[in-house]
Design goal:
- The chain is mainly alpha-helical and 646 residues long.
- 65% of the residues lie in helices and 5% in strands.
- The chain is built from 25 helices and ten strands.
- The strands form five sheets. Strands 1-3 form a two-stranded parallel sheet.
- A hairpin with a 4-residue loop joins β8 and β9 (325-326).
- The longest helix has 32 residues, at 583-614.
- The protein starts with 12 loop residues before the first strand and ends in a 14-residue tail after the last helix.
Length: 646
C-alpha cells in the first residue's frame, strides 16, 4: 500500500492492475519546464478536466506489484488517467509542409521500434534491421515514448529486483512441488511396517501422485489459459498444502492413497502453470538462463527434502498408541507442507502475467504492470518508462473477446478449444513430439530417481550380512526380496533405515548442482537441444552401466552421474517445451506434455519396480534406450534459443 500524502482519504483507491496511473507529467514537468505546458495541455486536456476539479485525495493500492511507484515528488494530489490515454509525454509532432501531424512509433521489425525521424532515421532502415538480426545485438533504448510489442516492452523494463523476487517465489513453487514428489521415496522404507507395504504396493504408492498429476495437469492448465496464471497458482498451492497435512494424519493405506491422489491433482497444475507464468515475464535474451535457474530449484527441493529426511525420519519423535500413530515419517510429511503454504501467501504480491493479459486484449492492465516492473527494477519514475501503448495480436484479441458470458461456460469452452487447437497443424507436430519426449524422459527420470533410496537401502542390507563381497544389483535385489518374504511369513517387520542411506541419497542429489550451474551458464549459448541430447545420452549410458556395478560405492558413483546428467537435461526440456507453444495455448500445451510425463512416471514406478524384482536387469536397459531415443527426438522441434516468445 502506497500513499503519496499522509492526508489521503481511504475512500478512493486505485489498483495498478486496473491501469490507473498518476499524471506526473502534467504537474511536475509543467512546473519544471514551462515550455512544455502548452503541448501537454493539448494532449491531456480531455481526460484531466474530469479529475482536476476533484477535491478528494487519492491513494494507490499497489499490492499487485512488489515495488510501489514513487510519488514523493512534491505533488500533493496527483491526478489520474487511464494508462492507455495518459501517455505522460509530449506527443511527437512532425512538421510536414507547415502542418502538425501526430506520429506514433510502432515497433514491428525484430521486436524493435522506430523512434522518430528526428533521432533514429538511420536505425529504422531495412539494412540496419538485417544487420541487427544477424548480430543479435539489442536495440538501443528509445529517446521518445513508443508503442511496443511484448518483447520490446519487457526489455525496456530492464532486468533487476522484480525478476529476482519473481525467481525466488516461482522457484519456491518448483521446490515445494519437487519436495512433495520425491518425499515418497524417503517415506517408503520407513512406512512399510505402518502401512503394510511390499514392492507392489510401494510402486502404486509412488505412482498414485502421478495419476493425480495426470488428472490435474490438463484441468488446471486449461483453466489457466482461460482465467490467468496467478489465481490458479494460489488455489493450487493451498490445496497442495492441505492435502499433504491430511495425508500425514492418515492411518491406513487407503486413506493415505486417497490424499496423495488429491495432492497429485494439485501438483499436476503447478508445473505447467508456474513455468508458463515465469517464462512470460522474461526477455528473450535471458529466458533460457533464467528458466534453467528455476529448474535448479528442483535440485534445491531434492536436497532440502533429503536433508529433512535425514534429520527427522531416523529419530523416535512422535506419538504412538493403539488407535493413533503420528511418528517421525508423518512429521517429516507435515514439515514438507510448509513451503506450499508459504508460496500460497507470497503469490498474492505478484502481478498477473502481462503476456496473458495481452492475449485477452487487456493492454491497459498489462501496461500498468510493465510500469510497475520498470519502477521496481530501475527506481525511476513511471513516466520515464518509454512505452505509452502496447501492440496486441488482433486475431488473438478477437478470439478471446467473443461473446462468452458465463465463467463456467467460458472455462469448458476454453478447455475444448485449446485442446483442439493443439492437435491442428502446424502445432500438431510440436504437441506429438513434446508428448513423446516427456513420456520417455520421465520413465527414466522417475523410474530410477525415486527408487535410488530403496536401492541404497538394499545394498546396505546385503553388505551387512555379506561384508567385503561384491554383487551386482540383481543379486542384491534377489537376496532382499527373499529376506522380506521370510520376515512376512514370520510376522516380523523392520523399518529402521541406516543413516548412510540418507547420506548417499543426499550425495546423489547434490551432484545435480554443478550440472544445473553449467545449464544456467550455457543454456542461451549452447542451446536447449544440446543440453537435452547430451544429458539424456549420458543418463542412458549410466542406466545401462548400473548392471555392471559390484558394490554400494560403484552404485553411488553411477547414480550421482545419472542424477547430474538428467537434471541438466530436465532443465533443457522444461525450457524447450515452455517456449515451443504459442501464448494462448502455452499452459494447456505444457499441461498435456506433463500428462504424458506423469504417465511415464507411473509406468516407471510400477513396471520398472516389478521388472527389477522379477526380470533383472531388463529395466536398466529399457530406461537406457528410452532416454537416448527420446532425447534425440528434440531435433524435430524448432530451435527456440534466444527467440521471441511467440
Amino acid at each position: 500500500m502506497v500513499e503519496g500524502d499522509s492526508a489521503k482519504s481511504k475512500s478512493e483507491s486505485y489498483n495498478v492492475e486496473v491501469g490507473l496511473q498518476p499524471n506526473y507529467n502534467q504537474n511536475n514537468n509543467a512546473a519544471s519546464n514551462p515550455n512544455n505546458s502548452s503541448s501537454l495541455s493539448e494532449s491531456t486536456n480531455t481526460n484531466t478536466n474530469t479529475n482536476s476539479n476533484s477535491n478528494s485525495a487519492t491513494h494507490i493500492d499497489n499490492r499487485a506489484i512488489i515495488q510501489p511507484y514513487l510519488l514523493g515528488t512534491g505533488v500533493k494530489q496527483p491526478e489520474y488517467q487511464f494508462a492507455a490515454d495518459n501517455c505522460g509525454y509530449e506527443p511527437e509532432t512532425i512538421i510536414n509542409n507547415g502542418k502538425n501531424q501526430q506520429h506514433q512509433d510502432v515497433e514491428r521489425i525484430g521486436g524493435g521500434a522506430g523512434t522518430g525521424a528526428a533521432d533514429s532515421s538511420d536505425e529504422s532502415t531495412p539494412d540496419n534491421h538485417k544487420k541487427r538480426r544477424r548480430s543479435k545485438a539489442p536495440l538501443p533504448p528509445p529517446t521518445r515514448p513508443i508503442v511496443a510489442n511484448f518483447e520490446r516492452a519487457i526489455e525496456l523494463c530492464d532486468y533487476g529486483k522484480f525478476h529476482y523476487i519473481l525467481l525466488a517465489i516461482c522457484g519456491l513453487v518448483s521446490t515445494s512441488e519437487e519436495m512433495d514428489v520425491i518425499s515418497m521415496s524417503f517415506i517408503l522404507p520407513s512406512a512399510q511396517c505402518d502401512l503394510d507395504l511390499n514392492t507392489e504396493t510401494k510402486g502404486w504408492l509412488n505412482s498414485i501422485i502421478f495419476i493425480g498429476m495426470m488428472v490435474g495437469a490438463y484441468f488446471w492448465g486449461s483453466i489457466a489459459d482461460s482465467f490467468g496464471r496467478k489465481k490458479i497458482l494460489i488455489v493450487i498451492s493451498f490445496m497442495n498444502a492441505f492435502c499433504i497435512v491430511a495425508s500425514s494424519f492418515s492411518q491406513t493405506y487407503g486413506y493415505f492413497m486417497f490424499f496423495r491422489f488429491l495432492n497429485g491433482a494439485a501438483l499436476g497444475g503447478s508445473g505447467p502453470v508456474i513455468w508458463s507464468y515465469f517464462a512470460e515475464f522474461q526477455p528473450k535474451a535471458k529466458r533460457g538462463s533464467m528458466l534453467s535457474f528455476m529448474a535448479a530449484f528442483w535440485t534445491f527441493g531434492n536436497l532440502f527434502v533429503a536433508g529433512l529426511a535425514w534429520l527427522i525420519i531416523p529419530t523416535n519423535i512422535g506419538v504412538t498408541s493403539t488407535y493413533f500413530t503420528y511418528n517421525s515419517w508423518r512429521i517429516f510429511l507435515l514439515v514438507c507442507s510448509i513451503p506450499s503454504f508459504l508460496v500460497g501467501f507470497l503469490l498474492f504480491y505478484l502481478p498477473e502475467s502481462p503476456k496473458f493479459l495481452l492475449t485477452r486484449g487487456k493492454k491497459d492492465k498489462a501496461l500498468a504492470i510493465f510500469r510497475g516492473i520498470f519502477v521496481t527494477n530501475t527506481k525511476k519514475k513511471p513516466e520515464e518508462y518509454m512505452v505509452y501503448d502496447l501492440e496486441i495480436d488482433e486475431k488473438t484479441n478477437n478470439e478471446s473477446s467473443v461473446g462468452i458470458k458465463g465463467k463456467y461456460h467460458r472455462m469448458i469452452t476454453g478447455m475444448v478449444d485449446h485442446s483442439r487447437d493443439l492437435f491442428k497443424s502446424p502445432i500438431l507436430r510440436f504437441t506429438l513430439v513434446s508428448i513423446t519426449i516427456n513420456f520417455t524422459f520421465h520413465i527414466g527420470y522417475y523410474g530410477l530417481m525415486m527408487w535410488f533410496p530403496e536401492v541404497f537401502n538394499r545394498y546396505e542390507e546385503f553388505e551387512k550380512t555379506h561384508p567385503q563381497q561384491e554383487a551386482d544389483i540383481c543379486t542384491v535385489t534377489e537376496y532382499v526380496v527373499n529376506q522380506s518374504r521370510l520376515a512376512t511369513d514370520n510376522g516380523t517387520c523392520n523399518s529402521d533405515i541406516p543413516s548412510s542411506v540418507f547420506m548417499e541419497s543426499l550425495i546423489t542429489l547434490a551432484s545435480a548442482l554443478p550440472a544445473n550451474l553449467f545449464a544456467i551458464l550455457g543454456m542461451d549459448m549452447l542451446g536447449r537441444r544440446f543440453f537435452l541430447i547430451a544429458g539424456t545420452m549420458t543418463a542412458g549410458i549410466c542406466s545401462a552401466l548400473m548392471y555392471l556395478v559390484r558394490s554400494s560405492l560403484q552404485n553411488l558413483l553411477v547414480s550421482a552421474v545419472f542424477s547430474g546428467a538428467i537434471s541438466a537435461a530436465n532443465a533443457a526440456l522444461d525450457c524447450l517445451i515452455t517456449e515451443v507453444f504459442p501464448t494462448k495455448l502455452r499452459a494447456t500445451g505444457v499441461a498435456i506434455s506433463m500428462v504424458a510425463a506423469r504417465l511415464g512416471g507411473i509406468i516407471g514406478n510400477i513396471v520398472i519396480a516389478q521388472l527389477l524384482d522379477h526380470f533383472c536387469p531388463v529395466p536398466t536397459f529399457i530406461v537406457s534406450g528410452l532416454l537416448i531415443g527420446g532425447g534425440l527426438m528434440c531435433l524435430l522441434l524448432p530451435n527456440t534459443t534466444r527467440k521471441e516468445l511467440n
